[in-house]
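To assess whether the prediction recovers the assembly geometry, we first specified each molecular entity separately, as shown.
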Amino acid sequence: MSVLEDADAPVERLSPLQEFCRAPGAFIRERPHVPLVPLILVVVVGAWEVIVRAGHLPDFLLPAPSAVGRALASGLSSRLYLEHFWITFSESLLGFLIAAAAGIAFGTVIAQFRLLERTLYPYLVALQTLPKIAIAPLLIVWLGFGFSSKVVIAALVAFFPVLVNVIVGLKTVDAGKLDLMRSLDASRWQTFRLVTFPNALPFVFAGLDIAIVFCVLGAIVGEFVGSQRGLGNLILQFHTSLDIAGMFAVLLLLAALGVGLHLVIQTIQRRVIFWAQADHVIGA
Amino acid sequence: MAAPLIVVSRLEKTYLTRAGSRIRALADVTLEVADGEFVTVVGPSGCGKTTLLRILGGLLPASSGTVELLGRRVTGPGRKVGMVFQDPVLLPWRTVLDNVMVPVIVLRLDRQLYRRRALELLALVGLTGFENRYPHELSGGMRQRVSLARALVHDPALLLMDEPFGALDAMTREAMNLELQRIWRESGKTVLFITHSIPEAVFLGDRVVVMSPRPARVVDMVTVDLPRPRDLDVMGSDSFGVYTRKIRQMLGPKGWLE
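The predicted structure of the complete assembly is given in tokenized form:
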């Protein structure tokens, strides 16, 4: 019989909610930050409300949180915000999908050929250091005030983090794994499919996580530079009318959009690269 | 002694460093391993044992000299050899069974047929019930068992093992030595096993090849005449001590061990 004294069976894992229900006191003692995180929000928002009211600050300088809440509620119920939200959301998402597909495709090709990589490297560095949003006015000239210019700006801003992470990921392979494949006389394609590509996925996801935030940024900048619709356009409209509460409300919507997209990527990431510890993943 | 499975003659390896200087890693290594034999290679760390193993596995070209496996000259990697490295090098995104199947996929063998063999090998290394676990769920010893099953799955004639238990704690290591002896006896493979532990070399080997520091030469070959199967008690026996002392004396007085 074999010796299995070194078997360390994985322990049963409870969700945080289950743990809380089982023993609330112990749960909070072990994770004091869980109640502290919302507490900070309550304190800051409360203090803000008090300061604005006590200081009689005019609404066009700093609206009280309650005023922002009212603006948000009315904007949402009149569907005005939703329409603009949808525009910015679709621009960002489409830009992201283009950036992700192009970044993975180009990155994979570049990482395969050393000559190609070395030839393109100086250009990639130059393009990466260039603030892409500076190209936004040019793209508005070329593509107009509509949807497509925002998609292209979003894609352009999000493309480089994906590209760079794909290249780095494909090149960061443990020599032992490559030796294993070589000892079996594996073909290039087999090595790519079985080792190099899955091995790069944690890097790819780190790039995608940056990209998803960047493409919202790209879409908003595009809308600032020239647009008829979208949350960025709405901010400009409120700016003109000095509707500061409305601006804050739109900022909240943008924050929600960013957090939501980030969570989507994280959820997919946890499923696809379940085997990678968070600390193995390198953010760019 | 049965016909030699592998014949190494006058093997030399010289590396060219980036600075342009030459490093001689292997000097005139000649060695024969019989079919079914368990040969251990012991020598100081960094002496070039791994270089020897990599040349035998076809991962490195020799500078001169030849390696013949089953009468054919080794010029590159082939399916006649199974390798176990210092680290288990498992693919963390594949289950235990799928890791063992990697050589089957790469060598384009019949997956149905070899899946059964992979399961048998996992049973042989004592991992039944762990087929669908992932490497991160296993302990170090268990991972190295998976890598052993993977090295055996395509039924190679020769198993090359490069200090496979070096990273394990002493107790797990002894348990793995026992296991390896059992697996070797059951599978009937020829094994070339590299280590820098003299007791491990004596415990496992039919023969111990003692190598010098760089450039590695064969200092002596010691035939270990201890009955099989050996249990851990044999390590306390007088004859075991005679062997380990003898090897230590070959290496020790010259300051090769520290």
